[in-house]
């Protein structure tokens, strides 16, 4: 189906829905690199005007990647819930935007239509929304998940403690973990990106964190972010493997996932295997997914679909597996996809909003590389905006500097700042533990007086 | 009002003893919830070095001066990326030679064994400072092995894959690309060396071998030259490079 709009006598035509979505996208370098973006400011707004008038029903009849060619499309179409869609099935994309922002549309209403929305509808509406809209709408939504603690409650804000080390040295990693815990970081997960994907190495790190957790009765979960096949192998070979959360990076097209060495059946197998360990105490959300705009283009697997729409399609996979955490690693991919602070900030707010609207426990890796036109000030801005938007978690990295992955993310200090200025608390179970240990007081301030004592407690056991 | 009490000096941070186990920025203390000013400025300086490296410019004269002792001529070439801003946004253009450069290479085509290519990549600083020291160790090894070396090619706004097209046009059997790596906070001057046997346009990563982190405080010149030369010999012996060319002597292990 073709779409048309005329502005001051100039006619704009868009061949199909995927072209319309791409041309309506706020500018980012990745879409320019792929040759998909609007050619002028006017064409972009023309596309947005056309998109605003597209009925949501069209998205069910016109898929952007053929059903026969792509298992993500099949997942999206086959899992669509027509009943949940009913309340909004008469709306256009533009009407959906106004409805999302209206005073009467609250968390419960949004939850009830969640399964009726497809990723493409959600991507489409986000393209018509300003940063303010993306924050205001996301703020309404509460996505709560549980394993050994509760993440995502309103008024709470969590962190993934990311204690990476260039050679996976357990002592080096332990040093960063101890520091992070003493900075009240790690309630979302203690998550290590391993430098190498060796099963034995992964197992050693998992056992170390698990022993630490048990010894100090810390209500948290851990994860080593190895390839899903490595985690699956560990579980299959060791009935007592201390795998709390199973990790995988995912993308929004079948071909992207092929380049990652995964497919839906494999994720399902790993999901069932992880569930079978039955390690969660208060909940059973066992998956941890990471995403990021640009991965489909990077894998040369985008099918002419813009990078933001590809990103939201990945969320269809995530929601199938009831994840504990979904993290969009927004600024890691580099300036050829997201050029500067402005593009990174916009992309992060889009991802957070779109994920939340689809029912996902969204966190954001607020980050940049040294060849992007961004710096700490941009990250301070984004961090604050995400806090206001109700983001579930960010990363906690010593001094913002990941010495293994060589990029800058958020520090332990950043999370303390955000909790303080927005009056947010850690996950309730973790908060109680922090108070009991004398790391934090009842008001949420860090108490430095007990640090030395605690350190000898932790450090003496774990380092020396 | 009484005089305020100054913040706690860093040396008294009780977490200091953790520092010996990792280079991560731990035990940096805090001012309220913020990073103390000394540590915040140290971080800023590291980022400033990385940013300056990204925007540094190839010192063609200096690099060629380092080569005069070997009597090797040099060629000055340019990719299709016209500016640093375009280079950062369009990696595809950085992988292709501009027309003028392609012409220059055709005019210099010969039956060469090896071509050494020096490109700015994401840090011209890296090759400006370290290519001379590395080549002083590497070129004698190549000459002793009686390899015929093509004119040394200096490429502005270049990416790794450009080397394959370049070597193909020169008719060289093996390409050695020395390129500035993406600067990190701990180092902004690392060279990456990429080797391709039988280079031609359109090859991808799996056809190349890479040795990274070449700099005085990383993999030192002499050791790096030794590893590169080992790969050169193996590539000629096995007539391949990339994933099929393994490090059988443990020379490349980290």
What does this structure look like?
The complex is a heterodimer of chains A (464) and B (254). With 464 residues, chain A is an alpha/beta fold. Helices cover 47% and strands 11% of the residues of chain A. The model of chain A has no long low-confidence stretch (mean pLDDT 95). Chain B has a 6-stranded mixed sheet with strand order 1-3-2-4-5-6, with helices on both faces. The longest helix of chain B is centred in the middle third of the chain and has 21 residues, at 124-144. Chain B is α/β, with parallel strands linked by helices and 254 residues long. The N and C termini of chain B lie far apart (59 Å). Classes of the chains: A alpha/beta (464), B alpha/beta (254). Chains A and B meet through helix 2, helix 11, helix 20 and helix 22 of A and helix 1 of B.
Beta-strand fraction estimate of chain B: 15-25%
Neighbour order of strands in the largest sheet of chain A:
7-6-5-12
Instruction: Report the strand count of chain A.
Output: 14
Share of helix among residues of chain A?
40-55%
Described by its quaternary structure, the protein is heterodimer
Q: Give the terminus-to-terminus CA distance of chain A.
A: 68 Å
Percent range of helical residues of chain B: 25-40%
The tally of beta strands of chain B, per DSSP, is: 6
Helix-and-strand structural type of chain B:
alpha/beta
Provide the residue-averaged pLDDT of chain A: 95
Mean pLDDT of chain B: 93
What structural class do the secondary elements of chain A suggest? alpha/beta
Shape of chain A: globular
* SSE string of chain B: HHEHHHEHEHEEEH
Radius of gyration of chain A over all CA atoms, rounded:
22 Å
Q: Order of strands across the widest beta sheet of chain B?
A: 1-3-2-4-5-6
The largest β sheet of chain A comes out as: 4 strands, parallel
Q: What is the first-to-last residue Cα distance of chain B?
A: 59 Å
